[in-house]
Amino acid sequence: MQKISFSGKVKIAISVALIILVLLFSDMGSIAEAMADVNWGLILVVVVLYLANLVVKAYRWGVLVQSTGNKMPFRSIFATFTFSQALNNIIPGRVVGETSRIYEVKKREGMGVGTSLATIVTERLMDFMVVTVLAITSLVMLFAYLSEDLADQLLLVVSFLVVLNFFLIYVLIDPAIARKVCDWCVNIVNRLHLGSKGDKLNEMMIGFVTSFSSAVNTKERKNGRYIWYAGALTIGIWTNEIVRTWLIMEALGAEVTVLAVVATCSLASLSGIMLSAGSGNVVVSSAIYTASGLEPEIAATAGVLSAMTSIWLSVPVSIIAILAHDRKARVKKFPEMANK
Questions:
Q1: 36-45, 131-140, 174-183, 272-281: least confidently modelled range
Q2: Model-level pTM greater than 0.85?
Q3: How far apart are the C-alpha atoms of 49 and 244, rounded to whole Å?
Q4: Please, where are the H alpha helices in the chain?
């Protein structure tokens, strides 16, 4: 029987704990009753599309890593990415998952923290730009069908996203802002007269900002076309997300407009920063679909199905990916264990 590495055991334990956490968020009896008439054939298609999208997302991150002049085997990319996705999907803020990615690529591949962070920021910005455009376009066209209070709330959210989007774009276009913040922090540390500890802290901050700026600046990347390729993959990824969301409504036998589907898909993604374990899918689906004329029960069930076929599914997928990667790594290190 092949042994699992300590890090693999820790990741699996965390993933199992996440499954338990997800179940605590749900009333399984009510869910089973509400889904009695669902077309499970279509739901199976939704699951397949989600798995395909997960592979494409991991591959896109690999492309961004390669654009910095670094290379990682896809099995490492996929295992690291799926684990971070599981953490991001369950834990609010999406900080823990991204931190796990940075830690893994530094430990396994020796990639600088600033460089790995730059690939993640670029990836997130690509998603954020597409989602913001989808959210703004669909909501503006849906405003006439929404209640005044809901329309005002969504308008505030969209306005905030536009400002945040432009700020992030500015930071990525001109990384000098990061260097200015770094210089400011270095000056503060120098005034505190921390001695050798202060010197080490300054060295760490300067090294981080230097590697981050270098990786973010497309002119300094090994090959700028990788960025365009990753951007094209992003369009495909979100097309998949919209199709999946629409198929869920078809599986429920519910008639909704494409605009409602696009708005639900984009806002559910944005809400994941604050609402965890699929609760954002349920809340957003209930609000948008109910405002579009659907029964509240159908709207809520759509949100639960969306969470089941993506956010909740990411945890077992992460476990499988970790097991497969761990086994492959150990066989490579100890060839005599291949047949055990």
A1: 272-281
A2: no
A3: 7
A4: 6-24, 28-34, 40-67, 74-90, 95-109, 113-142, 148-173, 176-192, 196-216, 225-251, 258-271, 279-291, 296-308, 314-333
DSSP state of 2: P
Structure tokens at 63: 């492309």
Please give the full DSSP string across 128-163, using - where no structure is assigned: HHHHHHHHHHHHHHHGGGS-HHHHHHHHHHHHHHHH
153-158, long-range: CB < 8 A, 24+ apart:
154/267, 157/267, 157/270, 158/132
| Amino acid making up residue 267 | L
Question: Tokens representing 233?
Answer: 């993959």
Indicate whether 205 pLDDT > 90. Answer: no
DSSP label of 256: -
- Domain-by-domain residue ranges, the chain? 6-175+217-337
